[in-house]
Write the structure tokens for this entry.
Amino acid sequence: MMGGDGAQGAWTYLVPLIAIVVIVLHGVRTRVLRIEHMWITPALILLAVVLTFAVQPPPRLPVLVAEAFVLGMGAGMGWWRGRTTEIRIDPATHALTCKASPLGMALIAGVFLLRFSFRDYALEHAGQLRVTPVEIADVFLLFAASLVCTQRLEMWIRARRLVAAATTDA
């Protein structure tokens, strides 16, 4: 039985490490940015959040305060990460490309590490913290949704400005 727990514990840390490596490898590449498709991921995330919260009872006041806090924190980090993403436009074709900054990648790696470290602590001490595992998962879900949606919004705003400036100059 001890061997199973050790293997499970190793996977608990290996999966986030693999996720960080995949995110970093994906982020260091320059990608085509299609502003007309940038709404899809945030819409799917918001749909998942709405569906998740629709089947749950309303949160208690302390949890609601924590959720409001992480929404703001996620929005701030998402806006900052979006600002650090390099967006370029080809003057001739007006094609957009983007590439995550090393600082932005470090932010995501740090958030992942903090999330998994805190999640383990929070789940082990849920009774002492007076929260349920579902409430903990909801807080993390709202943080991630806020970060991604705000990042996309900021990038969309900058990309539209670049396209508008390029078409005015042409």
User: Anything to note?
Assistant: The first strand starts at residue 31 and ends at 33. The mean pLDDT is 85. The first helix runs from residue 2 to 27.
